[in-house]
Design goal:
44% of the residues lie in helices and 15% in strands. The protein has 13 helices and twelve strands.
Length: 349
């Protein structure tokens, strides 16, 4: 069902909790406990009730309740994982910025859209910062309908109560491409990030754009899976080399620093030197980059700046001092040791 149809259906007739209970064949109390996460309810019953809630597009009328209730002074951060330095820096910056304004922070780790929506809309937080692909277009429409203040970190979306604070990942990819081209390289590979991830898509798109402007293309065989993960990237690189069907790339752009580390380790495991045989550039500039051997050339993105800006924009919307917008944060190249220029043939004296 399209988003406009969902919205129209909600406007015509809001589904009640009684109707959900009847459709699910359970009591209203069971539905209520399922939505709140409380009560002694079996996992099978919870899943059944949530399936009915999803199918009927039921959302409790928290908006009307919140008009009478006091602010919770709590913000929710919704992610699928906390692994890696990115999430720690991001959450700390969000917490500190919110704390300065008198707000607390709750972190929710979940991947199921129904669970995320319940936590966002149960009236226990004043707004949400979302880095989670469990929220799709349908859920976005419901958030708009209920005027829930939300800031996304993983997509471009803006409305009166909705903003985005994202890295300019297209520009990150373009910068990486131009830098490697200027070093004299002509054959490239890319370590891709997570499937359907905004930064993965945009970094590859920007990288391809820079190369195409110079008349260079990357065959699909040179796009290797990395999943933003070191071990996955390493395995992909080793498999590429073991198959030996294609010439080795001269330079590799990895979608993040962890996959760049995996790329380097995969190359080294197969006898290749970095940067003497293959140059590698990463993206994000995590702390380990300057301690890694070789020190990693990368695109610097400020995780803390993203967190601070996201909280500032969310508080602006919560307090009614401005509407949502899309903000893109620019990166910059940090040159270290993992890339080297192609030496040109010396000219006669």
């Amino acid at each position: 069902m399209r988003n406009t149809e969902i919205k129209g259906e909600l406007q015509m007739k809001r589904v009640t909790i009684k109707e959900v209970a009847k459709a699910a064949g359970v009591s209203i109390t069971t539905v209520s406990h399922t939505l709140s996460g409380g009560g002694a309810i079996s996992q099978q019953t919870r899943e059944h009730v949530m399936e009915v809630v999803e199918r009927m597009h039921y959302v409790a009328d928290f908006k009307g309740q919140n008009l009478k209730a006091k602010s919770t002074k709590v913000i929710g951060l919704f992610v699928k994982s906390l692994r890696g330095s990115y999430y720690g820096d991001l959450a700390q910056a969000i917490y500190e910025e919110g704390s300065n304004a008198g707000y607390g922070l709750n972190v929710f780790i979940a991947s199921q859209s129904d669970k995320i929506m319940v936590d966002i809309m149960n009236g226990r937080i004043d707004g949400a910062i979302v880095l989670n692909d469990g929220i799709t277009g349908k859920e976005e429409e419901l958030l708009r309908e209920h005027e829930i203040p939300v800031v996304f970190l993983d997509r471009e979306s803006a409305d009166y109560h909705m903003s985005s604070v994202i890295f300019d990942s297209f520009e990150d990819g373009r910068l990486a491409g131009e830098y490697l081209l200027n070093l004299g390289y002509k054959r490239f590979a890319h370590i891709y990030g997570e499937k359907n991830n905004y930064d993965s898509i945009e970094r590859l798109r920007g990288f391809r754009y820079a190369l195409e402007q110079a008349g260079v293309t990357i065959p699909e065989e040179y796009i290797l899976q990395g999943d933003f993960d070191k071990e996955t990237a390493r395995c992909s690189v080793e498999a590429f080399i073991e198959e030996s069907k294609y010439p080795m790339p001269e330079a590799v752009f990895a979608s993040n620093d962890l996959s760049a580390f995996g790329c380097i380790e995969g190359l080294q495991a197969k006898g290749y030197r970095v940067p003497e045989d293959v140059s590698v550039i990463g993206c994000d500039d995590i702390e380990l980059c300057e301690w890694y051997i070789p020190k990693l050339t990368t695109i610097h993105n400020s995780f803390s700046e993203q967190g601070r800006k996201a909280m500032q924009m969310l508080l602006t919307m919560i307090e009614g001092n401005g509407k949502g917008e899309i903000v893109k944060l620019s990166g910059r190249i940090v040159i270290r040791e993992s890339c080297k220029a192609v030496f040109s043939v010396s000219q006669p004296e």
